[in-house]
Structures are given as structure tokens and as C-alpha cells.
Amino acid sequence: MGQKVHPKAFRLNTVATWASRWFASGKQYRKYLQEDVRIRQDIRRRFRDAGVADVDVERSANAATVTIHAARPGVIIGRGGQGAEGLKKELRERFFGTAKGAPALQVNIIEVDRAALNADVVAQQIITDLEKRIPFRRTMRQAVGRMERAGCLGVRVQLSGRLDGSEIARREVIMRGSVPLHTLRADISYAQASAQTIYGTIGVKVWIYRGEVFNEKGKK
Q: What is the DSSP string of 37-106?
């Protein structure tokens, strides 16, 4: 089970929580879900250099909050906060409305703690290196080295595709330590993405084991 299910979905309400927090029914549910997907896609595409890890969306009857977790928040905030204000204005116009009665929008930008142990940030760095035509084995070794120095307990990095321009697509995996996918209390950061190279698309998957999470009475 743990090998097939998305690690975050498998641990919801245990060590992970939902990225979208709101209640809706019928067509409103579909509308909110599609908007949340587009919001995340637009933010990740627009601020690719910021190392966006997560985008949380909360909605209530008269308010909405978009929280962006990024490794380099200054890229989003911009000089004098102009970038954040521009993003807020764009989100309001495209998704939340500007008419009277539209929900009040708040945009929070938070720096990621220990970015080297966040799978989304690591995957984005790997993609950047691959698209710069850096050899994939060096890219994988450097990524694993950064995570080990940051204190991870286990890591797995997988690349799939025409690696280094080979005629036949294949898969390469580097694994260090343990990555207990079946343990619900295991804090595992997971990300999957794709790099667009001159040889085609290369799939990138990253698993990072950061330790076990116990309840408030437990001890690490």
C-alpha cells in the first residue's frame, strides 16, 4: 500500500494536512478545486526561481487566504513588497473577484525551514540542473549530498527518461539510508516533476525521510 499511494495522501491527518481547506458542494466544489489547481500552477510557473514548496488555500464565506511556502521568499516579495502586491492583485482579479461582496484576499509568504529537506525544492533544483545539461549522475549525487548534510535519515532520488540522450529510456535510482513508506508516523517529503530537455522529458521523483512524528506525549 505504502509503495503505491502518494506518501502525503497516505499520511493525511497523521503527519500531513490538506493543502486546500474549505467546504463546498455541487458545482461550487468543482469551481474551487479547479481554481486551486490553477493558482498553484500559476504561482509555481511565475516564481520558478523562488523554490516554491507548497501553496495552501483557505476559504471561508467572506475571506480567502493563500499561503506560499518558498525557499527564497524575497523573489516573490520583490523590492519594497511590489512583487507580493502585484501577485495579490492578479489573484484577486483572476480567481477571487474584485466586485463588492467578493471575499477579502490575504497572501502570506513564508520561508521554508530547512529547504534542503523539502522534496519540492530539491526536485526543482534537479530540474534546473538537468535543463542546463549538467550530467544526471552528478546532479543526483550533488542533490543527495546536500540532503545528507542537512540531516536527512534517508533519501531516494529517481530519474526516468532518455538520460544523457540515450536512445532507450531507462530509470536511474540513488538511495541512501531508509525510506519507510509503510510507516504512517514517518515524516516523508515527496515530490514528482519533469524536466524538459533537448532529448525529451525526464521524470524526477524525490523521497526524503526526516524522522518520525509522535503525538504531543511522545518523544523523538
A: HHHHHHHHHHTGGGTEEEEEEEE-SSEEEEEEEES-HHHHH-GGGHHHHHHHHHHIIIII--STTPPEEE
